[in-house]
Design a protein that fits this description.
The chain is mainly β. It has two helices and eleven strands; from the N terminus they run E-E-E-E-E-E-E-E-H-H-E-E-E. The strands form three sheets. Strands 2-3-4-9 form a four-stranded antiparallel β-sheet, with no helix packed on it.
């Protein structure tokens, strides 16, 4: 494995998420309290980009089916599910039942090194 510069610290303000791609590997960068974390950027529920989600402390919530992951560990905090009024209608269909039953998997995390304004990830 090698440390590869993937972004500038100024590209990932505190409390934000950023999608990066290195050699077709999709990585999520998250800035929590000034510390940068890196993990896979595809939801372990149905493969949506987590960079489109919401960061709340150490937890990123997938924008598609609301699965939640700890950005420091990559561990699933909550399984994916269909929520809201439209989700309640979809859940009653065969497709909704299948989507809700899909197991949510933990995600791989990566070592991060920040030097000055340079973010490097060990890939």
């Amino acid at each position: 494995m090698a440390l590869i510069e993937v972004a500038k610290l100024s590209d990932v303000p505190e409390g934000s998420l950023k999608h990066i791609e290195i050699d077709s590997k999709e990585i999520l960068l998250a800035n929590v309290g000034g510390t940068i974390y890196a993990m896979d950027d595809r939801c372990g529920h149905m493969n949506a980009s987590l960079a489109m989600g919401v960061l709340d402390g150490y937890v990123v919530k997938c924008a598609v089916h609301h699965a939640r992951f700890d950005v420091a560990t990559g561990k699933k905090v909550q399984d994916g599910h269909l929520g809201g009024a439209s989700g309640a209608l979809i859940t009653k269909t065969k497709t909704g039942k299948i989507m809700n039953a899909i197991k949510t998997h933990d995600l791989q995390t990566y070592e991060v090194e920040v030097t000055g304004d340079s973010i490097k990830v060990n890939l």
